[in-house]
Amino acid sequence: MSSLANQLVRAEKEEIARAIRTLLARPFLTADDEPAAFTVIRKRREPLTRWFDYFCGWRLVVEPREGYARLVKVGSRPTATRPARRRPGGPPFDRRRYTLLCLCAAELLAAPVTTIGMLAGRVARAAAVEPGVPPFDPVSADERAAFVDALKLLERHGAITPTDGTTDAYLGDEDAKVLYRVDTTRVIRLLAAPVPPSSLPGTPATPAAALTVEARYGGDEPTETQRALWARHSVIRRLLDEPVVYRDELTPAQAAYAASLTGRRMIRRAAEEAGFVLEERAEGLLLVDTEATATDTRFPDDGGPAKVAALLLLDLLVTAGPLPAGRLDEEAAGLLRRFPQWARSYQSDGGAPRLAADALEVLAMFGLARRTGDRVAALPAGARYRVDRGPADTEDA
């Protein structure tokens, strides 16, 4: 093979690897937001579709004319570590916002054009007849704020586009005039559950996990082939979705697959083809993206007081843990006293426990610490953030 041919093959592999990591970070990617990335995904959609189906069992939908790519991800287990957010990097959606998001998505399918007032009216009528759903009152400022957050998320995915006016205007005025163009195809593509919610009984006894049942794995009586397929997909899904995968958190079947020759070969191959560096330890595995393309949030960084406090508390947990949760509250209180101009949102009564709780939530999300009852312990991956105290520090101590 000529040198030019080798370069072309290498360039193609690099494009596919980068596109895989881009889609992992942004499963709903539009040409308007990332034209260069979408061009590559459109060009390489066939090998990308095969890769996601083979290693993860995930479906990739690329619509060149509509200008979007949708990676339909199904999680291997329920988790609350990737919530919808009120704005990029902002607070997570609460139950009310999720409810309004679902009602908005359902009502948007009625027409390709609507106004914010008409949509609010339809949502109010739908909420009034849905059992168990609190009424929607657009007169309330809090209700309008939750409604706007749901609409802004739909805007970010291109499901609706304001053509006259801005959605934020509705925050201060329930009579604000905003005209939307609705992309009903994108509204439908938002749902990633393999089982349509409309096909379930809809009773309170129906578990949410019923939405993620995948027939390809054989249900209660799988064949040997289906069990092997599930093991491969579920382990690699977790590696791609979670910062670190500990062996003691895997099911016996998953742990056996990850330790087998076939499983290790598949995991290494998937990591290499996607451009990750695979770290294998006795305690678990993790994938490192040296370019941070697949990374939707980082640790450590100065993204907020909770992350800063998390790094400081993690060092304490690594060196002196496990510790009672109350000890972390005391440490957080000490930080707030030492830096009175820092973390102003926590500089009030009850601020220290809130800071400690938010920091612990960060550590749990990144697989660095775990709370069991009243005790908090650092997990093995937390050791990489331990402060290296030199001789001078030791002597001072």
General description of the model:
This protein is mainly alpha-helical and 397 residues long. It has 4 domains: 3-72; 95-189, Arc Repressor Mutant, subunit A (Orthogonal Bundle); 223-287; 305-396, Arc Repressor Mutant, subunit A (Orthogonal Bundle), CATH 1.10.10. It has 15 helices and 12 strands. The strands form 4 sheets. A 3-stranded antiparallel sheet has the order 1-3-2. The protein is globular and about 60 Å long. Mean pLDDT is 88; it is low at 393-397.
**CATH A-level architecture of the largest domain:** Orthogonal Bundle
Please compute the radius of gyration using only Cα atoms.
24 Å
Mean pLDDT equals: 88
Question: Number of helical runs?
Answer: 15
Task: Provide the helix percentage.
Answer: 40-55%
Order of helices and strands: HEHHEEHEHHEHEHHEHHEEHEHHEEH
Largest sheet: 3 strands, antiparallel
CATH class of the largest domain: Mainly Alpha
Shape: globular
Terminus-to-terminus distance: 63 Å
The tally of strands reads 12
Sheet-strand content, in percent, reads: 5-15%
Count of the separate structural domains: 4
* CATH fold annotation of the largest domain: Arc Repressor Mutant, subunit A
Backbone structural class: mainly alpha
Order of strands in the sheet with most strands: 1-3-2
Query: Which regions have little confidence, pLDDT < 50, spanning 5+ residues?
Result: 393-397
